[in-house]
Amino acid sequence: MIEVENVTKVYGDFKAVDSISFGVEKGEILGFLGPNGAGKSTTMRIITCYMPPTEGRASVEGIDCVENSIEVRRRIGYLPESAPLYKEMKVAEFLDFTASVKSLRGDEKRRAVASAMEMTEIADVQGKIIDKLSKGYRQRVGLAQALIGEPEVLILDEPTAGLDPKQIVDIRKVIKELSKERTIILSSHILPEVSILCDRVVIIDKGKIVAVDKPENLIKNRQKFMRVELSTKGDAGEVSRFITSLEGISSVKGLEQEMQGEHRFLVEAVIGKDIRGELSAAIIGKGFDLLELKPKVLSLEDVFMDIVTEEEKGEGDE
Hints:
The structure is a single chain. The chain is of the alpha/beta class and about 325 residues long. It has eleven helices and 14 strands. It has two domains: about 1-220, Rossmann fold; about 225-295, Alpha-Beta Plaits. It has helices spanning about 40-45, 70-75, 90-100, 105-120, 135-145, 165-180, 190-195, 215-220, 235-245, 275-285, 300-315, and strands at about 1-10, 15-25, 30-35, 55-60, 65, 75-80, 155, 185, 200-205, 210-215, 225-235, 250-255, 260-270, 290-295. A hairpin with a 7-residue loop joins strand 12 (about 250-255) and strand 13. Helix 3 (about 90-100) packs across helix 4 (about 105-120) and helix 4 crosses helix 5. The longest helix has 18 residues, at about 300-315. About 35% of the residues are buried.
């Protein structure tokens, strides 16, 4: 459905995107991740025909994004990080205008506007001025404009940025529903959101792709240790030294103290060995008060930070 092949984008002496390649299958939600300045927005602008690549090729359904950009744009709905809204217009007026820009006329235009409002659940505010809406509703209007004409591909750049928790949940539901019939590229700094929504993840850093896989595979492949988080009472240094001395323990890290006299630790052991039973028995047998012990599973955020940090260390070693 979407192919990015050896794409490079250079601004003067700065290489924003450096020979990247990836594909997105029909009906897939692809998470596109990276720190600020990594090249995410530049890549999405190339796919949406906003700018051409310096080298390489991007295509949608086999249609080249440079050679036939108008045809590609007919197939794409794009929600930039800052939603492109005319805030002085009413919601229905703005969507009607957007439909006209997309060359829709008459009954076809009316159906397209009504459909976009229904999918994003904004029909109840269609007569209101956009600037008077909450940020959550403005984001829905931005998503609705991307849906005008029922495009087969959606490119969403930080669709839940700045929203409150309820608004985030609402937008996620809309995106998940839309994915049943569309191919979606989703860029977000909210990594739990990516884990929930995305079938596969591409991580880009300093213009280069550093990881591509399903979120669960990225987590599984990076889980080098079994991690246990525990809380005890007693002398923190003595507890830490005792746990470190136990067989199979790789590391012990003190965590931020929550209550007076209570100490929290992150304990790592060799993967494949379940240390919870032995660890709890040893701590209690030593006379320390064990208040809590629970496994600590890696998150996509942990994986992301590990990968990006490794890339930075690699550059520093060169």
